[in-house]
Amino acid sequence: MINSLSGRFLILTIIFVMLAEVFIFVPSVARFREDYLLARLERAQIASLALEADDMISPALERELLKNAEVYNVVLRRDEIRQLALSSPIPSPIVATYDMRDPSGMVLIRDAMMTLANTDDQIIRVIGNPVRDGGLLIEVTMDEMPLRAAMLTYGRNILIISAFISIVTAVLLFLAVQILLVRPIKGVVSHMQSYAKSPEDARQIITPSAGVTELRDAEEALQMMQTQLTGALKQKERLAQLGGAVAKVSHDLRNILTSAQLFTDRIEGSDDPLVKRMAPKLVNSITRAVNLCETTLAFGRVDEPAPTLGRVNLGSIVGDVIDSERLAAGDYPLSFAEDIPAVLSLRADGEQLFRVIFNLVRNARQAIMATGNPGEIAVQATEDDSAWHITITDTGPGLPPKAREHLFQPFQGGVRKGGSGLGLVIAADLIRGHGGRLELQRTDETGTTFAIQLPKADLALSPAAE
Question: Where would you find the membrane-spanning parts of this chain (predicted)?
Fold first, then answer.
Protein backbone atom coordinates (compact mmCIF):
# COMPACT_ATOMS: atom_id res chain seq x y z
CA MET A 1 0.00 0.00 0.00
CA ILE A 2 2.72 2.50 1.02
CA ASN A 3 4.90 1.61 -1.98
CA SER A 4 2.02 1.99 -4.43
CA LEU A 5 1.46 5.18 -6.42
CA SER A 6 -1.93 5.91 -4.87
CA GLY A 7 -0.66 5.13 -1.34
CA ARG A 8 2.16 7.61 -1.67
CA PHE A 9 -0.25 10.20 -3.05
CA LEU A 10 -2.43 9.63 0.02
CA ILE A 11 0.43 10.13 2.48
CA LEU A 12 1.89 13.11 0.64
CA THR A 13 -1.51 14.80 0.46
CA ILE A 14 -2.01 14.51 4.22
CA ILE A 15 1.50 15.85 4.86
CA PHE A 16 1.13 18.78 2.48
CA VAL A 17 -2.31 19.77 3.79
CA MET A 18 -1.06 19.65 7.37
CA LEU A 19 1.95 21.77 6.43
CA ALA A 20 -0.37 24.28 4.79
CA GLU A 21 -2.53 24.35 7.93
CA VAL A 22 0.54 24.97 10.09
CA PHE A 23 1.32 28.05 8.01
CA ILE A 24 -2.30 29.11 8.42
CA PHE A 25 -2.41 28.24 12.14
CA VAL A 26 0.13 30.81 13.37
CA PRO A 27 -1.49 33.95 11.86
CA SER A 28 -4.94 32.57 12.70
CA VAL A 29 -4.08 32.22 16.39
CA ALA A 30 -2.49 35.68 16.36
CA ARG A 31 -5.68 37.13 14.86
CA PHE A 32 -7.81 35.26 17.41
CA ARG A 33 -5.73 36.75 20.27
CA GLU A 34 -6.15 40.24 18.83
CA ASP A 35 -9.92 39.83 18.53
CA TYR A 36 -10.06 38.42 22.07
CA LEU A 37 -8.22 41.40 23.57
CA LEU A 38 -10.20 43.95 21.53
CA ALA A 39 -13.41 42.30 22.72
CA ARG A 40 -12.27 42.69 26.35
CA LEU A 41 -11.49 46.34 25.73
CA GLU A 42 -14.94 46.89 24.24
CA ARG A 43 -16.67 45.10 27.08
CA ALA A 44 -14.65 47.11 29.60
CA GLN A 45 -15.68 50.35 27.86
CA ILE A 46 -19.33 49.29 27.97
CA ALA A 47 -18.95 48.50 31.67
CA SER A 48 -17.51 51.97 32.29
CA LEU A 49 -20.65 53.56 30.83
CA ALA A 50 -22.49 52.67 34.01
CA LEU A 51 -20.22 55.03 35.89
CA GLU A 52 -21.06 57.85 33.49
CA ALA A 53 -24.76 57.25 34.04
CA ASP A 54 -24.37 57.29 37.81
CA ASP A 55 -21.29 58.76 39.48
CA MET A 56 -21.95 56.73 42.59
CA ILE A 57 -22.34 53.00 42.02
CA SER A 58 -22.22 50.34 44.67
CA PRO A 59 -19.09 48.22 45.11
CA ALA A 60 -21.09 45.10 44.35
CA LEU A 61 -22.24 46.52 41.01
CA GLU A 62 -18.67 47.57 40.21
CA ARG A 63 -17.41 44.05 40.92
CA GLU A 64 -20.17 42.62 38.76
CA LEU A 65 -19.29 44.91 35.87
CA LEU A 66 -15.58 44.03 36.08
CA LYS A 67 -16.39 40.34 36.33
CA ASN A 68 -18.52 40.44 33.19
CA ALA A 69 -15.78 42.31 31.36
CA GLU A 70 -13.20 39.81 32.75
CA VAL A 71 -10.82 42.60 33.78
CA TYR A 72 -9.50 44.09 37.06
CA ASN A 73 -9.27 47.79 36.20
CA VAL A 74 -10.56 50.09 33.49
CA VAL A 75 -8.80 53.37 32.73
CA LEU A 76 -10.32 55.88 30.29
CA ARG A 77 -8.48 58.84 28.85
CA ARG A 78 -10.45 61.85 27.70
CA ASP A 79 -9.06 65.29 26.96
CA GLU A 80 -5.58 64.32 28.10
CA ILE A 81 -7.00 63.29 31.50
CA ARG A 82 -6.65 59.67 32.62
CA GLN A 83 -9.63 58.49 34.68
CA LEU A 84 -9.84 55.24 36.64
CA ALA A 85 -13.33 54.28 35.68
CA LEU A 86 -13.59 50.90 37.41
CA SER A 87 -11.16 49.20 39.69
CA SER A 88 -10.65 46.19 41.91
CA PRO A 89 -7.69 44.66 43.73
CA ILE A 90 -4.98 43.20 41.46
CA PRO A 91 -3.72 39.85 42.82
CA SER A 92 -0.16 40.29 41.49
CA PRO A 93 2.03 42.85 39.73
CA ILE A 94 1.60 43.58 36.03
CA VAL A 95 4.31 41.74 34.07
CA ALA A 96 3.56 42.81 30.47
CA THR A 97 1.83 45.54 28.52
CA TYR A 98 0.33 45.07 25.05
CA ASP A 99 -0.65 48.02 22.85
CA MET A 100 -3.52 47.07 20.51
CA ARG A 101 -3.94 50.48 18.86
CA ASP A 102 -1.98 49.76 15.68
CA PRO A 103 0.11 46.60 16.01
CA SER A 104 1.95 45.08 13.03
CA GLY A 105 1.39 41.51 11.91
CA MET A 106 4.80 40.35 13.14
CA VAL A 107 4.20 41.92 16.56
CA LEU A 108 0.84 40.13 16.85
CA ILE A 109 2.42 36.79 15.91
CA ARG A 110 5.31 37.33 18.34
CA ASP A 111 2.97 38.22 21.22
CA ALA A 112 0.71 35.27 20.43
CA MET A 113 3.61 32.82 20.52
CA MET A 114 4.80 34.30 23.82
CA THR A 115 1.32 33.87 25.28
CA LEU A 116 1.17 30.22 24.21
CA ALA A 117 4.65 29.58 25.58
CA ASN A 118 3.84 31.09 28.99
CA THR A 119 2.46 28.66 31.59
CA ASP A 120 2.51 30.97 34.65
CA ASP A 121 -0.56 32.79 35.94
CA GLN A 122 0.26 36.49 35.41
CA ILE A 123 -1.41 39.89 35.03
CA ILE A 124 -1.10 41.88 31.80
CA ARG A 125 -2.05 45.42 30.76
CA VAL A 126 -3.85 45.98 27.45
CA ILE A 127 -4.10 49.39 25.79
CA GLY A 128 -6.46 50.20 22.91
CA ASN A 129 -8.66 52.79 21.22
CA PRO A 130 -12.19 53.24 22.60
CA VAL A 131 -15.00 52.44 20.19
CA ARG A 132 -17.38 55.07 18.79
CA ASP A 133 -15.08 57.96 19.77
CA GLY A 134 -15.51 57.14 23.44
CA GLY A 135 -12.22 58.82 24.32
CA LEU A 136 -8.56 58.92 23.40
CA LEU A 137 -7.46 55.70 25.09
CA ILE A 138 -8.72 52.77 27.12
CA GLU A 139 -6.57 50.63 29.33
CA VAL A 140 -7.43 47.43 31.21
CA THR A 141 -5.63 44.89 33.39
CA MET A 142 -6.55 41.24 33.17
CA ASP A 143 -5.43 37.65 33.73
CA GLU A 144 -3.47 36.08 30.83
CA MET A 145 -4.41 32.47 31.60
CA PRO A 146 -8.02 32.69 30.28
CA LEU A 147 -6.61 34.20 27.09
CA ARG A 148 -4.10 31.34 26.74
CA ALA A 149 -6.80 28.73 27.41
CA ALA A 150 -9.05 30.27 24.76
CA MET A 151 -6.14 30.33 22.29
CA LEU A 152 -5.35 26.65 22.95
CA THR A 153 -8.99 25.68 22.45
CA TYR A 154 -9.12 27.64 19.20
CA GLY A 155 -5.86 26.09 17.97
CA ARG A 156 -7.04 22.58 18.85
CA ASN A 157 -10.23 23.14 16.89
CA ILE A 158 -8.20 24.34 13.88
CA LEU A 159 -5.99 21.23 14.04
CA ILE A 160 -8.99 18.93 14.26
CA ILE A 161 -10.64 20.60 11.28
CA SER A 162 -7.33 20.51 9.38
CA ALA A 163 -6.90 16.82 10.06
CA PHE A 164 -10.45 16.14 8.88
CA ILE A 165 -9.89 18.20 5.71
CA SER A 166 -6.59 16.42 5.11
CA ILE A 167 -8.13 12.98 5.42
CA VAL A 168 -11.09 13.83 3.18
CA THR A 169 -8.83 15.46 0.57
CA ALA A 170 -6.40 12.55 0.66
CA VAL A 171 -9.17 9.98 0.25
CA LEU A 172 -10.67 11.89 -2.67
CA LEU A 173 -7.25 12.23 -4.29
CA PHE A 174 -6.59 8.53 -3.64
CA LEU A 175 -9.79 7.59 -5.44
CA ALA A 176 -9.05 10.02 -8.28
CA VAL A 177 -5.55 8.63 -8.74
CA GLN A 178 -6.91 5.09 -8.68
CA ILE A 179 -9.45 5.86 -11.37
CA LEU A 180 -7.45 8.24 -13.57
CA LEU A 181 -3.92 6.81 -13.29
CA VAL A 182 -3.47 3.54 -11.41
CA ARG A 183 -6.14 1.52 -13.20
CA PRO A 184 -5.04 2.62 -16.71
CA ILE A 185 -1.39 1.98 -15.81
CA LYS A 186 -2.27 -1.48 -14.50
CA GLY A 187 -4.16 -2.08 -17.74
CA VAL A 188 -1.08 -1.14 -19.78
CA VAL A 189 1.11 -3.39 -17.62
CA SER A 190 -1.37 -6.25 -18.03
CA HIS A 191 -1.31 -5.77 -21.82
CA MET A 192 2.49 -5.79 -21.79
CA GLN A 193 2.59 -9.00 -19.74
CA SER A 194 0.08 -10.70 -22.02
CA TYR A 195 1.98 -9.56 -25.09
CA ALA A 196 5.29 -10.79 -23.63
CA LYS A 197 3.85 -14.29 -23.32
CA SER A 198 2.95 -14.42 -27.01
CA PRO A 199 4.50 -11.55 -29.01
CA GLU A 200 3.73 -13.26 -32.33
CA ASP A 201 -0.02 -13.12 -31.63
CA ALA A 202 -1.37 -9.90 -33.16
CA ARG A 203 -4.45 -10.15 -30.93
CA GLN A 204 -2.28 -9.26 -27.93
CA ILE A 205 -1.41 -5.82 -29.35
CA ILE A 206 -2.84 -3.09 -27.11
CA THR A 207 -5.74 -0.94 -28.26
CA PRO A 208 -5.44 2.64 -26.92
CA SER A 209 -8.38 3.51 -24.67
CA ALA A 210 -7.08 5.86 -21.95
CA GLY A 211 -8.83 9.17 -21.47
CA VAL A 212 -5.75 10.92 -20.05
CA THR A 213 -3.72 12.42 -22.88
CA GLU A 214 -0.32 11.35 -21.55
CA LEU A 215 -1.45 7.76 -20.94
CA ARG A 216 -3.07 7.58 -24.36
CA ASP A 217 0.18 8.78 -25.95
CA ALA A 218 2.01 6.03 -24.06
CA GLU A 219 -0.53 3.43 -25.23
CA GLU A 220 -0.23 4.58 -28.83
CA ALA A 221 3.56 4.42 -28.66
CA LEU A 222 3.32 0.93 -27.13
CA GLN A 223 0.89 -0.13 -29.84
CA MET A 224 3.26 1.05 -32.56
CA MET A 225 6.20 -0.72 -30.95
CA GLN A 226 4.25 -3.97 -30.50
CA THR A 227 3.01 -3.83 -34.09
CA GLN A 228 6.53 -3.35 -35.42
CA LEU A 229 7.94 -6.05 -33.14
CA THR A 230 5.25 -8.56 -34.10
CA GLY A 231 5.90 -7.92 -37.78
CA ALA A 232 9.66 -8.21 -37.24
CA LEU A 233 9.27 -11.49 -35.37
CA LYS A 234 7.10 -12.93 -38.13
CA GLN A 235 9.56 -11.78 -40.76
CA LYS A 236 12.44 -13.19 -38.75
CA GLU A 237 10.70 -16.53 -38.44
CA ARG A 238 9.99 -16.66 -42.15
CA LEU A 239 13.55 -15.63 -42.98
CA ALA A 240 14.88 -18.31 -40.66
CA GLN A 241 12.73 -20.93 -42.35
CA LEU A 242 13.70 -19.60 -45.76
CA GLY A 243 17.36 -19.54 -44.75
CA GLY A 244 17.22 -23.17 -43.66
CA ALA A 245 15.62 -24.17 -46.93
CA VAL A 246 18.12 -22.14 -48.97
CA ALA A 247 21.03 -23.69 -47.09
CA LYS A 248 19.78 -27.20 -47.84
CA VAL A 249 19.13 -26.38 -51.48
CA SER A 250 22.50 -24.65 -51.83
CA HIS A 251 24.29 -27.65 -50.34
CA ASP A 252 22.68 -30.12 -52.71
CA LEU A 253 22.97 -27.75 -55.66
CA ARG A 254 26.66 -27.22 -54.99
CA ASN A 255 27.29 -30.94 -55.17
CA ILE A 256 25.37 -31.20 -58.43
CA LEU A 257 27.18 -28.22 -59.94
CA THR A 258 30.55 -29.55 -58.84
CA SER A 259 29.87 -32.75 -60.74
CA ALA A 260 28.75 -30.70 -63.74
CA GLN A 261 31.95 -28.69 -63.51
CA LEU A 262 34.00 -31.89 -63.84
CA PHE A 263 32.11 -32.80 -67.00
CA THR A 264 32.66 -29.35 -68.50
CA ASP A 265 36.40 -29.72 -67.98
CA ARG A 266 36.28 -32.72 -70.34
CA ILE A 267 33.99 -30.98 -72.81
CA GLU A 268 36.60 -28.21 -73.19
CA GLY A 269 38.93 -30.81 -74.80
CA SER A 270 36.45 -31.55 -77.60
CA ASP A 271 37.45 -30.74 -81.20
CA ASP A 272 33.96 -29.64 -82.14
CA PRO A 273 34.12 -25.88 -82.98
CA LEU A 274 30.68 -25.24 -81.52
CA VAL A 275 31.60 -27.01 -78.30
CA LYS A 276 34.83 -25.03 -78.05
CA ARG A 277 32.94 -21.81 -78.48
CA MET A 278 30.17 -22.61 -75.94
CA ALA A 279 32.22 -24.50 -73.33
CA PRO A 280 33.93 -21.41 -71.76
CA LYS A 281 30.56 -19.74 -71.28
CA LEU A 282 29.16 -22.87 -69.69
CA VAL A 283 32.20 -23.18 -67.41
CA ASN A 284 31.84 -19.56 -66.30
CA SER A 285 28.15 -19.98 -65.58
CA ILE A 286 28.69 -23.13 -63.55
CA THR A 287 31.61 -21.52 -61.68
CA ARG A 288 29.45 -18.55 -60.74
CA ALA A 289 26.69 -20.88 -59.55
CA VAL A 290 29.13 -22.88 -57.42
CA ASN A 291 30.53 -19.68 -55.94
CA LEU A 292 27.01 -18.46 -55.12
CA CYS A 293 26.22 -21.73 -53.32
CA GLU A 294 29.46 -21.63 -51.37
CA THR A 295 29.02 -18.02 -50.24
CA THR A 296 25.40 -18.66 -49.30
CA LEU A 297 26.44 -21.62 -47.17
CA ALA A 298 29.26 -19.62 -45.59
CA PHE A 299 26.90 -16.77 -44.73
CA GLY A 300 24.32 -19.16 -43.30
CA ARG A 301 26.78 -20.72 -40.86
CA VAL A 302 25.97 -19.15 -37.52
CA ASP A 303 28.69 -21.21 -35.87
CA GLU A 304 31.52 -19.23 -37.46
CA PRO A 305 34.36 -19.78 -34.97
CA ALA A 306 35.68 -16.82 -33.04
CA PRO A 307 39.03 -15.58 -34.32
CA THR A 308 42.11 -17.22 -32.84
CA LEU A 309 44.26 -14.17 -32.31
CA GLY A 310 47.99 -14.45 -32.73
CA ARG A 311 50.92 -12.58 -34.23
CA VAL A 312 50.90 -12.90 -38.03
CA ASN A 313 53.06 -11.35 -40.70
CA LEU A 314 50.86 -9.23 -42.92
CA GLY A 315 53.32 -9.19 -45.81
CA SER A 316 53.21 -12.97 -46.08
CA ILE A 317 49.40 -13.02 -46.16
CA VAL A 318 49.18 -10.28 -48.78
CA GLY A 319 51.88 -12.03 -50.85
CA ASP A 320 49.83 -15.24 -50.93
CA VAL A 321 46.73 -13.33 -51.99
CA ILE A 322 48.52 -11.47 -54.80
CA ASP A 323 50.21 -14.64 -56.08
CA SER A 324 46.82 -16.36 -56.28
CA GLU A 325 45.21 -13.43 -58.10
CA ARG A 326 48.11 -13.10 -60.57
CA LEU A 327 47.45 -16.69 -61.63
CA ALA A 328 43.73 -15.95 -61.93
CA ALA A 329 44.41 -12.86 -64.05
CA GLY A 330 46.68 -14.79 -66.44
CA ASP A 331 47.89 -12.61 -69.30
CA TYR A 332 45.45 -9.79 -68.59
CA PRO A 333 47.22 -6.40 -68.30
CA LEU A 334 46.72 -6.08 -64.54
CA SER A 335 49.47 -5.06 -62.14
CA PHE A 336 49.67 -5.59 -58.38
CA ALA A 337 51.48 -3.42 -55.87
CA GLU A 338 52.04 -3.80 -52.16
CA ASP A 339 53.41 -1.28 -49.69
CA ILE A 340 53.79 -3.22 -46.45
CA PRO A 341 56.75 -2.98 -44.08
CA ALA A 342 58.59 -6.29 -43.99
CA VAL A 343 58.61 -6.38 -40.19
CA LEU A 344 54.94 -5.43 -39.80
CA SER A 345 53.13 -8.05 -37.76
CA LEU A 346 49.71 -7.66 -36.29
CA ARG A 347 47.44 -9.54 -33.91
CA ALA A 348 44.77 -11.36 -35.88
CA ASP A 349 43.50 -14.72 -37.05
CA GLY A 350 45.69 -15.38 -40.07
CA GLU A 351 43.19 -17.56 -41.91
CA GLN A 352 40.28 -15.14 -41.46
CA LEU A 353 42.42 -12.13 -42.41
CA PHE A 354 43.51 -13.96 -45.58
CA ARG A 355 39.85 -14.53 -46.49
CA VAL A 356 39.03 -10.85 -46.01
CA ILE A 357 41.94 -9.51 -48.10
CA PHE A 358 41.47 -12.20 -50.72
CA ASN A 359 37.80 -11.28 -51.09
CA LEU A 360 38.56 -7.58 -51.54
CA VAL A 361 41.43 -8.15 -54.00
CA ARG A 362 39.42 -10.70 -56.00
CA ASN A 363 36.47 -8.29 -56.25
CA ALA A 364 38.84 -5.58 -57.48
CA ARG A 365 40.39 -7.91 -60.08
CA GLN A 366 37.00 -9.03 -61.39
CA ALA A 367 35.78 -5.42 -61.60
CA ILE A 368 38.84 -4.33 -63.61
CA MET A 369 38.77 -7.35 -65.93
CA ALA A 370 35.06 -6.74 -66.61
CA THR A 371 35.95 -3.37 -68.15
CA GLY A 372 38.53 -4.84 -70.56
CA ASN A 373 40.96 -2.05 -69.68
CA PRO A 374 44.35 -2.34 -67.94
CA GLY A 375 44.36 -1.69 -64.24
CA GLU A 376 46.21 -1.81 -60.95
CA ILE A 377 45.47 -3.12 -57.45
CA ALA A 378 47.49 -1.84 -54.50
CA VAL A 379 47.58 -3.08 -50.92
CA GLN A 380 49.04 -0.73 -48.31
CA ALA A 381 49.45 -1.05 -44.54
CA THR A 382 50.38 1.37 -41.76
CA GLU A 383 50.12 1.42 -38.00
CA ASP A 384 49.83 3.93 -35.19
CA ASP A 385 49.61 3.72 -31.41
CA SER A 386 46.03 2.45 -31.38
CA ALA A 387 45.46 0.35 -34.53
CA TRP A 388 46.74 -1.24 -37.74
CA HIS A 389 45.36 0.18 -41.00
CA ILE A 390 45.13 -1.77 -44.27
CA THR A 391 43.84 -0.25 -47.54
CA ILE A 392 43.03 -2.04 -50.80
CA THR A 393 42.86 0.36 -53.76
CA ASP A 394 42.03 -0.41 -57.38
CA THR A 395 41.70 1.58 -60.59
CA GLY A 396 38.43 -0.04 -61.59
CA PRO A 397 35.19 1.64 -62.65
CA GLY A 398 33.95 2.22 -59.09
CA LEU A 399 30.90 0.75 -57.41
CA PRO A 400 27.48 1.19 -59.02
CA PRO A 401 24.87 3.21 -57.06
CA LYS A 402 22.90 0.12 -55.97
CA ALA A 403 26.04 -1.52 -54.58
CA ARG A 404 26.90 1.62 -52.61
CA GLU A 405 23.43 1.85 -51.12
CA HIS A 406 23.31 -1.79 -49.97
CA LEU A 407 27.03 -2.46 -49.70
CA PHE A 408 27.06 -4.61 -46.56
CA GLN A 409 23.57 -6.10 -46.89
CA PRO A 410 23.33 -9.76 -47.95
CA PHE A 411 21.92 -10.52 -51.40
CA GLN A 412 21.61 -6.80 -52.17
CA GLY A 413 25.11 -5.33 -52.36
CA GLY A 414 26.48 -7.39 -55.24
CA VAL A 415 29.04 -5.53 -57.35
CA ARG A 416 29.27 -7.94 -60.29
CA LYS A 417 26.34 -8.96 -62.42
CA GLY A 418 25.01 -12.17 -60.96
CA GLY A 419 26.89 -11.64 -57.67
CA SER A 420 25.22 -12.26 -54.32
CA GLY A 421 26.87 -9.52 -52.29
CA LEU A 422 27.69 -12.00 -49.54
CA GLY A 423 31.47 -11.68 -49.88
CA LEU A 424 31.62 -8.20 -48.39
CA VAL A 425 29.09 -9.11 -45.70
CA ILE A 426 31.20 -12.07 -44.57
CA ALA A 427 34.38 -10.00 -44.72
CA ALA A 428 32.84 -7.26 -42.58
CA ASP A 429 31.63 -9.85 -40.06
CA LEU A 430 35.12 -11.35 -39.80
CA ILE A 431 36.68 -7.94 -39.19
CA ARG A 432 34.05 -7.10 -36.56
CA GLY A 433 34.97 -10.37 -34.89
CA HIS A 434 38.45 -8.88 -34.44
CA GLY A 435 37.01 -5.76 -32.82
CA GLY A 436 37.76 -3.69 -35.93
CA ARG A 437 35.81 -2.38 -38.87
CA LEU A 438 35.72 -2.59 -42.67
CA GLU A 439 34.45 0.45 -44.53
CA LEU A 440 34.28 1.90 -48.01
CA GLN A 441 36.69 4.84 -48.02
CA ARG A 442 36.30 6.05 -51.61
CA THR A 443 34.65 5.02 -54.87
CA ASP A 444 34.27 6.89 -58.16
CA GLU A 445 35.02 6.44 -61.83
CA THR A 446 38.77 6.38 -61.09
CA GLY A 447 38.63 3.44 -58.68
CA THR A 448 37.68 2.18 -55.24
CA THR A 449 39.40 2.04 -51.84
CA PHE A 450 38.40 -0.18 -48.94
CA ALA A 451 39.93 0.39 -45.49
CA ILE A 452 40.43 -2.15 -42.70
CA GLN A 453 41.15 -1.06 -39.15
CA LEU A 454 42.25 -3.54 -36.49
CA PRO A 455 42.64 -2.29 -32.90
CA LYS A 456 45.79 -2.93 -30.94
CA ALA A 457 44.20 -2.83 -27.48
CA ASP A 458 43.61 -6.18 -25.78
CA LEU A 459 40.04 -5.28 -24.90
CA ALA A 460 36.57 -6.57 -25.53
CA LEU A 461 35.00 -5.86 -28.89
CA SER A 462 34.72 -2.21 -29.77
CA PRO A 463 31.26 -0.65 -30.30
CA ALA A 464 31.77 -0.98 -34.06
CA ALA A 465 32.11 -4.73 -33.65
CA GLU A 466 29.01 -5.27 -31.54
Answer: 6-30, 158-181
